[in-house]
Design a protein that fits this description.
The chain has 194 residues and is mostly helical. It has helices spanning 2-19, 28-34, 36-77, 84-145, 174-181; strands at residues 23-26, 149-152. It has one domain (19-181). The protein is 71% helix and 4% strand. It has a two-stranded parallel sheet with strand order 1-2. α4 packs across α5. The chain starts with a helix and ends in a 13-residue tail after the last helix.
Length: 194
């Protein structure tokens, strides 16, 4: 990977010398975090996760209730005051209750696994849409600024080395991109307290 980056930089440098190519940088992390749609998506995902969690909590409460019923039936099945037939009836009821507990625990595990997968999938889809929006605006700003190449100044190579080691503020188009991304969207950071 580092070889590819070096090759890219050599290529960029050779193009820059021959055709006076202009390069810009952006902070993709900042663009992603401060884009208003990111905040909306995150809030929606949190709400959905809370809904899923509420149902999971209900299932856990059902499991606790079933466990208490099981303990009561099990203890009753060991009560020597009861007739053998009554104790056997309680034992069978306790066994059935235990089967209900196992089924409910499996339901909870499956529910959690399924909903986590759905959340991850939805998060990835939304992330791709947001990145597509950002890339479109970066492309527009680069074209308007006459830039031929835009690099993410926060990018890290596979070896853990920054891809862009140095850049001047003059070639950073992050703020212009962010302004265009959030154009027409009013920030609600200063809401009055109720």
């Amino acid at each position: 990977m580092l070889k590819k980056i070096l090759l890219l930089l050599v290529l960029v440098c050779s193009l820059g010398v021959s055709a006076q190519q202009r390069i810009a940088v952006v902070d993709m992390d900042k663009l992603f975090r401060e884009y208003y749609k990111t905040k909306i998506v995150e809030a929606n995902l949190r709400r959905q996760a809370d809904i899923y969690k509420e149902y999971a909590v209900k299932l856990q409460e059902d499991i606790r209730r079933l466990q208490q019923e099981f303990i009561t039936l099990r203890d009753a099945s060991l009560n020597m005051v009861l007739t053998p037939a009554a104790r056997e009836s309680k034992r069978l009821a306790a066994r059935d209750k235990y089967a209900q507990i196992v089924a409910k625990e499996n339901e909870l595990k499956n529910y959690n696994r399924e909903k986590q997968a759905l959340l991850r999938e939805d998060q990835e889809k939304q992330r791709e849409k947001i990145l597509a929006d950002i890339q479109t605006v970066v492309r527009n700003q680069a074209t308007l600024g006459g830039f031929h190449l835009v690099l993410d100044k926060k990018a890290i190579s596979l070896s853990g080395v920054p891809v862009v080691v140095f850049s001047t503020p003059a070639i950073d188009i992050t703020e212009a991109v962010l302004k265009e991304l959030n154009a027409g969207h009013r920030q609600n950071n200063n809401k009055p307290a109720k």
